[in-house]
Specification:
The protein is α/β, with parallel strands linked by helices. It contains 6 helices and 9 strands; from the N terminus they run βαβαβαβαβαββαββ. The radius of gyration is 17 Å and the shape is globular.
Length: 208
């Protein structure tokens, strides 16, 4: 079997998307290896998930460094030491600086709980409710130097129902995130994502 491509996952909290990725790998539907999980929060439950899956994990806290640049250099060094080829942001609640994004250009993915370019930034589900949107969803995209503004890889719509709360809408979106993120990573691992400007096209698989 060919050597698996290596991803590094950056997290800040619960880590349900990390779990979906680990489950897809275990189920044999996602042919990558998670080389490292890095959290900027020492108490993130995602760390426990990494531990249980036997995956190297590390806490890199912003407050341990003099400035944002030094903090991101520490993350960069840990990713490189783990031979990471793709950085997967899975509920990582920080905006990465230009230096990091340029160094990893085209090799950082994020998942956002809205249909971008609608509702970027924090609390996307609450933004959709407050706006009165009838449809929201989730987006997997490559990270560029803006906030939630990079080329879109995959999107999935979900309805916003009349009696939705932030919690019920978030749950409905999250169920789709857990399907969409492993799928996007699989397409990357198979070399099927072709980026041209803002457009990402998906090449047909050899099996199709
Ligand atoms: C997910 O809903 C993800 O889309 C969102 O945080 C949640 C993390 O959940 N990310 C953002 O809002 C990024 N701006 P998880 O820790 O259970 O994967």
């Amino acid at each position: 079997m060919a050597e698996r491509r290596v991803i590094g996952v950056l997290v800040s909290g619960r880590g349900s998307n990390l779990q979906a990725i680990l489950d897809a790998i275990a189920a044999g539907t996602l042919p990558v290896r998670v080389g490292i999980v890095i959290s900027d929060k020492a108490n993130a439950y995602a760390l426990e998930r990494a531990k249980q899956a036997g995956i190297p994990h590390l806490v890199v806290e912003r407050k341990a460094y003099a400035d944002k640049q030094a903090f991101e250099q520490a993350i960069d060094a840990a990713l490189r030491a783990a031979s990471v080829e793709l950085v997967v942001l899975a509920g990582f609640m920080r905006i990465l600086g230009s230096e990091f994004v340029r160094a990893w250009s085209g090799r950082v993915m994020n998942i956002h709980p809205a249909l971008l370019p609608s509702f970027p930034g924090l609390d996307a589900q609450a933004q959709a409710l407050a706006y009165g949107a009838k449809i929201s969803g989730c987006t997997v995209h490559f990270v560029d130097e803006g906030v939630d503004s990079g080329p879109v890889i995959l999107q999935q719509a979900v309805p916003v129902l009349p009696d939705d709360t932030e919690e019920t809408l978030s749950e409905r979106i999250l169920a789709q995130e857990h399907r969409l993120y492993p799928e996007a990573i699989r397409l990357w691992a198979e070399g099927r994502l072709i980026v041209s400007g803002r457009r990402v096209t998906i090449e047909a698989s050899e099996k199709e």
